[in-house]
Design goal:
The protein has nine helices and 22 strands. The strands form five sheets. Strands 6-7-8-3-9-10 form a six-stranded mixed β-sheet, sandwiched between helices. Strands 13-12-11-14-21-22 form a six-stranded antiparallel β-sheet. By secondary structure, it is α+β, with helices and mostly antiparallel strands. A hairpin with a 2-residue loop joins strand 4 and strand 5. The longest helix is centred in the middle third of the chain and has 18 residues.
Length: about 375
């Protein structure tokens, strides 16, 4: 296990800056997930850590050693890619043992390490098969086993579940989490899937345009996003945004109004807002209600997605799209859902730059 420290890491490809001065520390045994939209730099950052790309500036430190000039092998890092990259003519055992064979490990030692890794991954009964005889999930386990036998200091995963179907993705998420607990290893995982990030990570690193927007535990980021980008990136369905304006500012609270004229008081730090400021409020789908709340908004129901114990109500309010969660079974009448209630203590508030001026979970301010 290793502690990884990144100091002011930068990387450009030609005139395009991809990584722009990133500082990050990952502690021993942590499971950290990099998330962000396509092109944000998450896979490039992973390749810089692994040594597959060279940083233009900054330091990559494993424990107390600067490893910028070290090869991937010298760094003691193992990487699992989206592609399984298995040799089709080799058995599972041969594929898993190949990295050790390349460094001239003794055959009996290779066999011991392969068998131990196979038992950890529950594929010891597959060691004599070839890749074309395996399912997608089994192939991914073999790819992970090939990294485990090297006893690496750091595991890197680059969207390893992207090629799997929905059921296998869930199964493999569970297996990766179990693997982390068994090995107690330091792991960095790149994904575009925020569900994977929320379920696997000790901490999530949200990236955009080559910089870190926010770092924190999954629920901290979900409950206390620093800006609209982070708020909208985490959560499925996404957070709803409604236009608002400051009507009045008092001590520790502000009165806001919506497009429909609804007014409500929001407890919030008021130093950064003033009367007539334009704001955006964010409401998670689960924080709407058919009845109740401190204030209500008109709602034009267009579609109900019934998913068993939960439904998602799709519609609009004064021209702004809304998705609300409804945890009552059965079809709901359009007239019944003509308004949605909101608890003012649960809303997020953002200024015109997108910066959060109030989080939506009381008592968890950052």
């Amino acid at each position: 296990m290793s502690v990884l420290t990144l100091k002011n890491i930068a990387k450009s490809f030609g005139a395009t800056e991809v990584i722009k001065g990133i500082d990050l520390r990952i502690d021993e045994g942590e499971f950290v997930v990099f998330v962000g939209p396509s092109g944000c730099g998450k896979s490039t950052l992973l390749r810089l850590i692994s040594g597959l790309e060279q940083a233009d500036a900054g330091e990559i430190i494993l424990d107390s050693e600067i490893v910028n000039d070290h090869t991937p092998f010298e760094r003691g890092i193992a990487m699992v890619f989206q592609s399984y990259a298995l040799y089709p003519h080799m058995t599972v055992a041969e594929n898993m043992g190949f990295p050790l064979k390349m460094v001239k490990e003794k055959p009996h030692a290779i066999a011991e390490k392969v068998n131990a890794a196979a038992k950890t991954l529950q594929i010891d009964q597959l060691l004599d098969r070839r890749p074309d005889q395996l399912s997608g999930g089994q192939k991914q386990r073999v790819a992970m086993g090939r990294t485990i036998v090297r006893d690496p200091t750091l595991f890197l995963f680059d969207e390893p579940l992207s090629n799997l179907d929905a059921d296998l993705r869930i199964e493999m998420r569970v297996e990766i989490e179990k693997l982390h607990k068994r090995l107690k290893a330091t792991m960095i995982y790149v994904t575009h899937d925020q569900v994977e990030a929320m379920t696997l990570a000790d901490r999530i690193v949200v990236l955009r345009d080559g910089v870190i927007e926010q770092i924190g535990a999954p629920l901290d980021l979900y409950d206390n996003p620093v800006n609209k980008f982070v708020a909208s990136f985490l959560g499925s369905p996404k957070i709803n945004f409604l236009s608002a304006r400051v009507v009045d500012v008092g001590e520790g609270a502000a009165t806001l109004s919506l497009r429909n004229g609804a007014r409500f008081v929001v407890p919030m730090p008021t130093g950064d807002v003033k009367k007539d400021d334009a704001l955006t409020i964010g409401v998670r789908p689960e924080d709407f209600a058919i009845s109740g709340g401190d204030f209500s908004i008109p709602f034009d129901l267009e579609l109900q997605e019934q998913l068993g114990p939960v439904s998602y109500l799709h519609g609009s309010s004064n021209g702004e799209k809304i998705v609300a969660e409804h945890r009552v079974r059965g079809k709901i009448l359009k007239e019944t859902a003509s308004t949605l209630g909101v608890n003012s203590a649960r809303i997020h508030v953002f200024d015109t730059s997108g910066r959060s001026v109030r989080h939506g979970r009381k008592g968890q301010e950052t």
